[in-house]
Design a protein that fits this description.
By secondary structure, this protein is an alpha+beta fold. The chain is built from 3 helices and 2 strands.
């Protein structure tokens, strides 16, 4: 993807084929797992337009989830919503209390 330098919605997918998207998703998950990621993160990936090589720039586990952020843009492009993702993050972050026995 190519990004605007000011963080605006200037990204575009260079090869939007389903196969390419699946490959990028595999790369992102592998990078997330390689750094011991849990909960959520944004994996920054770029593609060289000449060689078509894909590069992982970073796995950002403290990424912004504010409106118009890259994280929100990614969530929406995957067909979800930031509200749904935040609910899932909170649900998974708060440990469930132990069951209390009546005994």
């Amino acid at each position: 993807m190519v990004s605007g330098s000011n963080g605006t919605r200037a990204e575009r997918v260079m090869d939007p084929s389903e196969e390419f998207v699946e490959d990028i998703q595999r790369v992102a998950v592998a990078a997330f797992e390689a750094v011991g990621g849990h909960s959520y993160a944004r994996v920054d990936i770029r593609q060289d337009p000449e060689t078509m090589a894909v590069y992982v720039l970073e796995v950002n586990n403290g990424c912004s989830i504010r409106p118009n952020s890259y994280f929100e843009m990614s969530v929406e492009s995957a067909g979800s919503s930031i509200r749904r993702i935040v609910r899932n993050i909170l649900r998974n972050a708060v440990p469930h209390p132990p069951s209390i026995s009546a005994n």
